[in-house]
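Protocol step 4 of 6: structure prediction from sequence.
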Amino acid sequence: MERRGKIYEGKAKIVYETDDPALLIQYFKDDATAFNAKKRGTIESKGIFNNRISSRLFQEVEARGVPTHFARTLSDREMLIKRLEIIRVEVVLRNIVAGSLAKRMGVEEGRRLPHTIIDLHLKEDSLDDPLINEDTISAFGMASREELAQMRGYALKVNGILTEFFGARNIDLVDFKLEFGRCPAEGGRILLGDEITPDGCRLWEKGTGRKLDKDRFRRDLGSVEAAYAEVERLVTR
């Protein structure tokens, strides 16, 4: 697979074209950002850990019925993915109160919710990814109601799969972000895209609540690289 020109560079990844117009190469960087890039830094080997973690988790959810953009792992930092037209909606699933939900509701972190909450955010860093709803998404033509229903269904299925997967490794899946897109090569079919990593998941050790995700960077808790390495070891074992 020949890597060609860069078509996109984000906070944590670079995406390159290939000699196949239906396939792209996704490269994982060590750059770390928080608060919509207001805080910046580097986490050594984060790109390697995230590529391995995301590859394994994409394979897990794909095997259990959720279609993804993942094609195969190419190297320590690269995966081959299907080209998607990304839908500008971030789907956030919350199982335990933490982060912005705790602040928004004025409650302490750590309360287990009686059912999963799905928040929808506009994917736009310059606006701090504001909360939106299905009417807004439909009215602005970002996705149809049918597509949104499919995205919600996939998201809840992923939540069930990953809650079980991480639970077997003594980790609570507190909350996490998913992104979806339309695959032109598959008739516009909705696929899970982006990544599934500690950058976009809150992962707490069961019993202790020890954080194993990017909150260690956000909150200056230290041992950031060690936390990512621990998640990679548990996920890929």
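Step 5 (inspection) to follow. The domain at 3-82 is CATH 3.30.200.20 (Phosphorylase Kinase; domain 1).
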